[in-house]
Amino acid sequence: MKIKQFIIPFFIILFGFTSCTEKTTVAKKDLSSTDKTKSDAKMESFLDSLTKIMTLEEKIGQLTLMSTDWEKTGPTINENYKNLIKEGKVGNIFNAYSVKFTRELQQLAVENTRLKIPLLFGYDVIHGHRTIFPISLGESASWDLKAIENSARIAATEASAEGIHWTFAPMVDISRDARWGRSSEGAGEDVYLGSEIAKARVRGFQGDDLFATNTILACAKHYAAYGAPIAGRDYNTVDMSERELRTTYLPPFKATVDAGVSTFMTAFNDVNGVPASGNKYLLTDILREEWGFEGFVVTDYTSINELVPHGVAKDNKQAAEIALNAGVDMDMQGGAYMDYLKELIADGKVTEQQVTTAARKILALKYKLGLFSDPYRYCDETREKELLMTPEHLEAARDMARKSAVLLKNNNQTLPLSKDKKVALIGPLANDKYNIIGSWTAAGDRYTKPVTVLEGFKEKISNPANLLFTQGCEINSDNTSDFQNAINIAKKADVVVMVMGESEGMSGEAASRTNLDLPGNQKELLKAIKKLGKPIVLVLMNGRPLTLEWENENMDAILEAWFPGTMGGYAIADLIFGDANPSGKLTMTFPRNVGQIPIYYNVKNTGRPYELKGPEQRYRSRYLDVSNSPLYPFGYGLSYTTFKYANFAVDKKTYAFKETINISVTVTNTGTFKGEEIVQLYMRDMVASVTLPLKELKRFEKVMLKPNESKKITFTLTSDDLAFYTKDMSFKAEAGEFKLFVGTNSEALIETNFTLK
Ligand code: NOJ
C-alpha cells in the first residue's frame, strides 16, 4: 500500500499524467546533444527508480506479450488475456487497435496494477494500416526509397491514430526462393537494395522522434535467415555457411540497427542447428556485442515453446531458460516466461538481473514513446477521425501502386491502350476487392474500400458501352461455366485485358508452393481466348515470382501489378491507359520453371561456367532441359519509352584504398513518352582470395526523362564498397582488377573497369 501511494506521485513528479481525454499534440523535439544527454539521464534515473521497486512478477509481466482474441496470427489464442493484464502478468498486447479497444485494455493495466505501468500495443502493420499500399515485395519493385519511406510513415500515422505503438515490420529477410510464400513480405533477393529499403522503412515507421504521437516502434524481423528455408517450405531448417549468412542474410538486419530500429523479432527456423529463438550467437554475440543493438528482442509467435519440437528443449521450462540465456527479452504469445522464469531463477538457471535487464529495455521504449507521461496519448478520437484513409494517404497509395508495377512484356506497343478502344476485361481478379490488397493487411478493409480494376477502367474508357466485363473463371478451381461468356465478350472487343494471379492467401505466412504456374484453370482460359487472335494484355496480381514461360510467349503485353492495395484498380488503369508510364523493376528473379529455384542474379562463376557461345558443352554447370537464364532477370522492367546508356566511365583507371571512385554515365530517353528509368550500377571483383559473384548491385538511381532528354548520372564508391569476407573472414577489400557495369537491368549492361592498388 505504501508503495502504491508513493508510485503515483512518483510518476506525476517526473512526468505528470495528462488526462485520457486531453488532446495530445505532436511535440516535435529538436534536441541538441546536451539536451539529449540530459533527457537520457532523466530516463535512466526514472528506470533505476522504477526497476528498484518492481517485484520479480511485475518485471516478468513486462517480458510477456499476448494477443487479444480480435485476430489470429498464429496457432493459439489466450482467451484469458484481460485477466492477465489486470494481474500485471501481461505487459504488452498485440492484435488490438482502435482508440476504444486500446483505451479499454490500457485502463485494465493502469487502473488495476500496482505500478500502473502502461501496456505497449503491437500489431502487424506491414504495408499500410487502413490505407493499404502494395505488398512489400511490390513496393520494393519501385526502387523508390522516398516513396517506400513515405508509405511506412503513412502506415505509422494511421496505426498510431488507432492506439498502436509498435509494428512488427519491416521484414528484411532476403529471399531467393519464390516457393517461399513470405517472399511477398520482403524486398526481394538483393542485399544492397534490401538494406536500403530496410533503412527507409525503419525511418518511415519511427520518424526522428519516438515521442511524437504519429511515430511507432519498428521491428526488424525475422532474425535470422528465415528467408532461406530448405526447399522454400515455411519454417523449415536453414543451414548455410557463416560467409553466406554474413554476406547475404545479415546485412539488412545490420542496416536496421544503423537506422536506429527499436526492436528485433527472432525467426522460427533453426540456423545451422540452433533455433533462432534460442541462438545466443545471433542474439547476443552478433546483435548486441558486434552491432551494439540497444532495443529489445521479441520472439516470433510461440517460438520459445517451439524449441521443444525443434528438439533442443525437453519442455517449455527449459525452452524459457534457453531463450533468456540466448538474449530474448520478450516472449510472444507462448507464456513460457510468464510460467517459468520465477522457478528458473529459484533453480539458479537464470538470474533476476537478466530479467531486470530485459524489462528495463522494454520500459525504456515505453518511456520514449511517452507512455509514462500519458498512457492514453495514442488514444485520441480526433486523430483517429482525422488521420485514417485521408485523400493524401489514398493518393500516396495510388502513386506507390503505379510505381510498383513492372511491365514484363509489351510487343508492338500494345500498351498503353487508347481510351476509345472496345475492351473486354476478364479474369478472377478483375473485379475482386478481397484479394487486391494482399495478405497482412492490418486493419485494411477488404470488402468495401479497395478499388478494383473494373472500377478503375470505368473512369478511363470514353464510352461506357465499350467496356465489357466477365469474370471468366475463379482463382483456383476447375469451374469452366463462365468460359463461354468470356469468349463471347472477347470476340466483340478490340483488345482483351485479363486480370489473373493468386489469391491473397497463396502468399504470406505458411503459404509455400511447389507449383508457381497460374493456379486453377486460369491458363486454360487464357489459351481459349488466345485462339481468337485478339491482342491480349495480361495483368498479374500475385505475391511472388510466378512461372510464366507460356504467358511470355503468347501474351502481347504483361503487367505485373503484385497485390497493389486499396487504390490498385485506379493505379492499374492509370498505367494501362497511359496516364502513367510503368517504371518498376523486379527485385526477385522470375524463373522459367520451379526446377531453377533458387535462382538469383548474383551467382558465382563456378569452375565450369556455361558459355552461351560456341559448340554444345556437356561438362558444364547447366541443366539438360532448360537454359540457366531466368525468364525475367533481377532489375528487369520495361517502360513505354526506351533509354540509351552511353559514356560510361570512371574518372581514373587506378585508385588507392579509401580514394573516391567517381563513376558517370549518360542516360537518354530515346522514345516518345516521358518516363522514369532505374539506373543500376553493378560491380565484379575479378580475382580475390575467395570466390565472389559475377556482379553485385552497388548503387542505383531513379531518373525521370522527357523524350530526347539526356542526364548525366554520377555514382561514387570507395574501397569500403568493395569489401567482402575474405578467406579469414575479415571484412575488407583486396587490391586488384574490378569491372563495373551499368544498365537497365542485371543482364543488359555496358561495362568499364579500374584497378584498386
Ligand atoms: C507470426 C509471423 O511470423 C510474424 O511475422 C508476425 O509478426 C507474428 N506472427 C505476429 O502476428
Structure, described:
By secondary structure, this protein is α/β, with parallel strands linked by helices. It folds into three domains: 382 residues, Glycoside hydrolase, family 3, N-terminal domain (TIM Barrel), CATH 3.20.20; 199 residues, Rossmann fold (3-Layer(aba) Sandwich); 114 residues, Immunoglobulin-like (Sandwich). It is 31% helix and 17% strand. It has 23 helices and 26 strands. It has a six-stranded mixed β-sheet with strand order 11-16-15-14-12-13. Strand 15, helix 22 and strand 16 form a beta-alpha-beta unit. Helix 3 runs antiparallel to helix 14, helix 7 runs parallel beside helix 8 and helix 8 packs parallel to helix 10. It is globular. The N terminus is likely disordered. The structure holds 1-deoxynojirimycin. 1-deoxynojirimycin binds next to loops.
Number of helices: 23
Mean model confidence by pLDDT: 95
* Rg over C-alpha atoms, rounded to the nearest angstrom: 27 Å
Main sheet specs: 6 strands, mixed
Keywords:
Rossmann fold; Immunoglobulin-like; 5-stranded parallel sheet; 6-stranded mixed sheet; TIM Barrel; globular; 17% strand; alpha/beta; binds 1-deoxynojirimycin
